[in-house]
Specification:
Order of helices and strands: HEEEEEEEHEEEEEEEEEEEH
Number of helices: 3
Radius of gyration: 20 Å
Structural class: alpha+beta
Distance between the termini: 7 Å
Largest sheet: 7 strands, antiparallel
Helix content: 10-25%
Shape: globular
Length: 232
């Protein structure tokens, strides 16, 4: 019986992964850059899945936008904090929010592979986090070294698995999830950091994937439970 239950659980988990799709995504190709132009804040997403509510990319108040911004990229400068703690205190981060529409539940599978561009005096290190109340943040994995490339080609970053984080699964429509990337280690005030489009072409450059599901009606939930019982 225990093995059968585990098998059913594994099947359901696999089905969720197969059905995972982009919940929210951004295209940086339209951003022209230029004098004091590092992209709008908030920067609205290009793609939002049905029955998902999301906020745009928002710069923390400590992120600078004075100087020449790069095209096909969204970010800022002034990431001279020496430590993660200093960066949090100094609001050296970017955030966005995701929430299920009324009557739906939300589960996250990944922050999809993306690209980071930095200048030679820009920040070297970052940390992704999430919060379920907008106040208390939890680290997602370990800190990331952004990479040594300082040209428009940027540094490719691997996808980040969210499917194993229990707190980010089966979230009700009352839960607003805030994602935050804290960035630090720059050696100069004009040093830049961007979420980047290395190809300069239309398409989603940064995205989060997962599943969005309707909340079952009480009768349907009973039938579903009965069906699982029959399988066992």
């Amino acid at each position: 019986m225990k093995k059968q239950i585990l098998a059913v659980g594994a099947l359901l988990a696999t089905t969720c992964l197969i059905n995972a799709a982009v919940l929210v995504g951004w295209d940086f190709d339209p951003l022209a850059g230029g004098g004091n132009d590092f992209g709008p804040s908030p920067y609205s997403p290009t793609t939002v899945a049905s029955n998902v509510i999301t906020g745009g990319l928002v710069r923390g108040s400590g992120v600078g936008t004075a100087g020449q911004g790069a095209g096909n990229a969204w970010g800022g400068n002034a990431f001279i904090s020496g430590t993660f703690e200093d960066a949090v205190t100094g609001n050296k981060f970017a955030t966005f929010t995701v929430q299920a529409s009324p009557g739906y539940t939300l589960s996250f599978t990944s922050i999809d592979a993306y690209n980071v561009r930095r200048s030679n005096t820009g920040p070297t290190t970052g940390q992704w986090q999430y919060s379920l109340d907008g106040i208390n943040f939890v680290n997602i994995g370990s800190e990331i070294t952004w990479g040594a490339t300082t040209t428009s080609a940027g540094n490719t970053q691997s996808a980040i698995d969210l499917s194993s984080i229990t707190a980010l699964q089966n979230l009700s429509d009352s839960t607003v999830v805030t994602f935050r990337v804290v960035t630090w280690g720059g050696s100069g005030a004009t040093g830049t950091w961007y979420l980047n489009d290395p190809n300069g072409s239309p398409g989603i450059d940064f995205s989060v994937s997962g599943t969005i599901s309707p909340v079952p009606e009480p009768a349907s939930a009973v039938m579903l439970a009965g069906g699982v019982g029959m399988i066992l």
